[in-house]
Amino acid sequence: MHPHLAPETTPRAGTVGEDDTSVHELTDTETPRPRCGAGDGERITEWLRAVNCPDCLTPPSPFRPSPPN
Ligand SMILES: [Zn+2]
To answer: Cα of 54 to ligand 1 centre, how many Å?
Structure first.
């Protein structure tokens, strides 16, 4: 274990379906999904790219999952 490892990590990023221009922040789970909820049911392609989806970049909690509604 690495108790001194900073909890802050680079967000996982990926695109959804055929749209390879909108890069979403992915939830860090076994089956990552866009944080903004885009492309429900679509195939996720993970990239080492900067997130550019405005919904995914919206504060206040970029490193926490959205609270359930
Ligand atoms: Zn998004």
So the answer is: 7
Distance, CA 66 to ligand 1 centroid (Å)? 12
Quote the number of domains for the chain. Answer: 1
pLDDT tens, residue order, the chain (69 aa): 555 655 566 779 999 999 999 999 999 888 899 999 999 889 999 999 999 999 999 865 555 566 566
Answer whether residue 44 is part of any domain. yes
> pTM of this prediction?
0.70
Angstrom CA distances, 42 to 9, 17, 33, 37, 65, stand at 25, 5, 9, 11, 20
**If you measure from the C-alpha of residue 58 to the centroid of ligand 1, how many angstroms do you get, rounded to a whole number?**
9
Asked whether residue 6 is assigned to any structural domain, the reply reads no
Q: Which two tokens stand for residue 59?
A: 């504060």
